[in-house]
């Protein structure tokens, strides 16, 4: 089903010749389009339910299977996505003030220092429609207006997550309600209007299309009034994030679809640490509800799938396919029933941080697939490279290889790690976890702060985390891909375990030292954290660091480890323990990171 109808498609075809002529007379740099979904999973097969995405993106581009967000919640992840910086360097760590949201983005000076501003300075026209940041609302939309956009049409809170009651705000115009219209369809119309504006300007453009699907539906009246202090547990629990609403034409699709019954689906024994290890097994009623929730997510994505189809029809009609890169990704992943969890995100589990990334464009292998490690910090550096802009020194990521040669070289040369971090709450989504009993929420977690590493090398695949409770997790994901068995020893009386055919006592000091670097890294040290520990350049991976020549250094000299003095709702440095190794690095003295 086409979103805008045959008449508009024919009109686009009729004007294609003029548009092609205008572009050929101007800048020959490529156009760049980003499709950014909201909370889309990789590990529950949502992409497999999008045949048009497969047709245009997966079959005609390259699928990056080991792509990660660095903070598994909307606003911090999106700020990282558009700045190329980890959340500990943007200081936007939550979805609402005082620690996050659009007001925090502005107060940190980022409204003048993010991708669209830089692209405009480089001669690109820039366009955006859909969700930009949380707490960008009907009250603060023009105080200030998001900078850097040639033309824009933003979704605004508190109506952002209402599939049938969205409010959009175009350029400097007053917000407009679209009550009764389906949000993704409205967004598609706006996106194609912006595309036509971009083509008419006759110079290279950047366009983002950011629908809310498959995020939960949230009624506007449930949002607490904006303020600068943290919301209480009771206030947050009143924000009922319920089943996504599909378009009417999709509401009966996939009647037999269920959450994949993987090994970590509602397991017989709890897994994880901190609050996770105390979760009860889900009831049969909750499992049924979660399956319904999952099915609604798949249905909600169908309008996005149709939008992708129409986008490529229009690009073809404008003659732009040969000079346009299209990037498809999500802000973060999602879990439903894994590890006994209700619907939600915010955890370090693979379901929450490993997300779709598909790129199509000139020189990109057709039907390609790669396991090189990439992260959201790499997206802006990649766009800079495509646009011919020199990378900034404060980028925490590096450009993603896009052609066959670059992808082959990356297998042996690219960094193997991802910095993962989170501060504050873990909130459930769905009706089973919201009712209050004597003023106390059934499910509310405010100690969900952690620092973590994902390491994927030739012979290892690890997740290591330290929580604000100072509990640790270590998963060997070669033998335990669903993160069920935490092998970190918690008691001195436990027999020592092995990993990588080595005792943990040898491997853990390396992980502790690496995490100490990445937890507060900046710029180049985020891309190559081993250079802080081994400035001679002879160590570029965990495998290199495990050389016996370095045993004394890691096991005796490096004594500072990641720890927390207190669980906080935001990035409060004073509560986060040591910030530097405080010791000589191997082979030479280095005072700080």
TrEMBL record:
EC number: 3.1.6.1
PANTHER family on file: N-ACETYLGLUCOSAMINE-6-SULFATASE FAMILY MEMBER (PTHR43108), SD21168P (PTHR43108:SF8)
GO biological process, one term: phenol-containing compound metabolic process
Residues bearing PTM 3-oxoalanine (Cys): 74
Domain Sulfatase N-terminal: 30-389
Signal peptide coordinates: 1-16
Protein name (record): Arylsulfatase
Protein species of origin: Coleophoma cylindrospora
Pfam families: Sulfatase
UniProt KW keywords: Glycoprotein, Hydrolase, Signal
Family annotation (CDD domains): G6S
Domain of life: Eukaryota
Database matches in InterPro entries: Alkaline_phosphatase_core_sf, Arylsulfatase, Sulfatase_CS, Sulfatase_N
UniProt PTM comment: The conversion to 3-oxoalanine (also known as C-formylglycine, FGly), of a serine or cysteine residue in prokaryotes and of a cysteine residue in eukaryotes, is critical for catalytic activity.
